[in-house]
Design goal:
By secondary structure, the chain is α/β, with parallel strands linked by helices. It has 13 helices and 9 strands. Strands 6-5-7-8-9 form a 5-stranded parallel beta sheet, with helices on both faces.
Length: 382
């Protein structure tokens, strides 16, 4: 793990604190990372910051000598940087600029010997928020990107072959009760922002169809402590939880639903799901195509037909994998992210060796990080 300058890690926490009226501290490493849905960058950083004796059971080993490293993790707090000034009046962030941070980060990386050595192929960079590092992502596209979806990435920037889908950090209390439907009086629950852009426009249409349905509780609400408590109550007392697309195909409430044992109803045709190599989401989720979900009466009728026995089977299946959706579980999300990253190593070595024997043509034609092209332009024998 790179020992980044603090302006890319703890310094961002300080800027977030200042933008909300807090005071500056001399030692920024004493600051706590603020809670939000993209806390994955904090949990991964904290894991690698521990000594190896504290990381028993991890699928990867941290080394201090870069010559011994197969992979290089770049622990930038890219998602937190996005929201430093969010919702604050101009000037409250004391001049902080996320785009400037992004540019400075890439300039710093490009100055590092080990980043230049293999054109960044053996680097791992977290960009959990779909808008994180948006200005510079094309300059770091060779790296393994840890992303929540590909909604804002071009095919030459991100793919399932090269990158790793990570989960949002769930923001509501996990359900601690037993299996069953008796205490879950609501058929279908959703609480979130009704009005989103792009693919998330489906939310307003679903509101119009569902808000007057019996046993359906669908409410507009933004992120706040009070709304999180209300969402916890709603998910813990509902059989099904609606998971429509947001501005991009993924959204945090899918993972809130899973830890609530509330069966996810996924209406997001382009969604990518974390850890799908080991988790079959069909065992505990209901997938509905967007065009079908928008037919009046279709969704509610579909869910009413699912018997209690099947719902309980869904709950038990969620419980079996629930640890994978908890970044604080010793054998949960953090370890699985690292395991997924380690599985990219053969491909990374392939790309490094492939890069070294390609003719540099200077062409403006984009290279494809997802290996969809076989035009290698190798050097022929004379």
């Amino acid at each position: 793990m790179y020992d980044l300058p603090h302006k890319f890690t703890y310094g961002i926490i300080q800027q977030h604190r200042l933008a909300r009226g807090g005071s500056a501290v001399a030692d920024v490493t004493t600051l706590n990372y603020p809670g939000h849905q993209h806390m994955h960058e904090w949990f991964l950083f904290s894991d690698l910051a521990r000594s190896e004796s504290e990381r028993v059971g991890s699928p990867i080993t941290k080394v201090n000598d870069p010559e011994e490293a197969d992979l290089f993790y770049v622990p930038v707090f890219s998602s937190l940087s996005l929201i430093v000034n969010a919702g604050r009046p101009p000037g409250s962030g004391l001049g902080y600029n996320d785009e400037e941070m992004q540019e400075a980060l890439v300039e710093w990386l490009e100055g590092q010997e080990y980043c230049r050595r293999n054109n960044g192929w053996d680097h791992v960079i977290i960009a959990g928020d779909p808008n994180a590092l948006y200005r510079v992502v094309n300059r770091v596209k060779n790296a393994v990107l840890l992303v929540s979806d590909f909604g804002r990435l071009w095919p030459v920037q991100g793919s399932l072959v090269k990158d790793v889908i990570i989960l949002y950090s769930h923001r509501i209390s996990a359900y601690t009760g037993g299996f069953g439907v008796q205490e879950r009086k609501t058929l279908l629950f959703f609480m979130g922002n009704r009005y989103r852009k792009e693919g998330g426009k489906i939310r307003d249409l679903l509101f119009q169809i569902l808000e007057n349905e019996k046993d359906v509780l669908i409410k507009h609400g933004t992120q706040s402590r009070e709304n999180r408590r209300a969402a916890s109550r709603g998910m813990h007392t509902s059989k099904f939880c609606l998971n429509p697309a947001g501005d991009t195909p993924s959204a945090c409430r899918l993972f809130d639903a899973i830890v609530s044992l509330c069966v996810p109803v996924i209406v997001s045709d382009s969604i990518e799901l974390p850890f799908e190599g080991i988790i079959d989401y069909r065992k505990f989720s209901v997938f509905v195509e967007t065009v079908a979900a928008l037919k009046p009466g279709y969704l509610v009728l579909l869910l009413r037909k699912i018997p209690a026995k099947k719902i309980i089977a869904f709950q038990k299946a969620m419980d079996e994998v629930r640890r994978y959706y908890d970044y604080t579980d010793p054998n949960g999300a953090v370890n699985e992210v690292w395991r997924q990253v380690s599985q990219k190593l053969p491909l990374i070595k392939l790309m490094i060796n492939r890069d070294r024997r390609l003719v540099k043509t200077g062409s403006s034609e984009p290279t494809c990080s997802c290996l969809c092209s076989n035009r290698t332009r190798i050097i022929g024998s004379l």
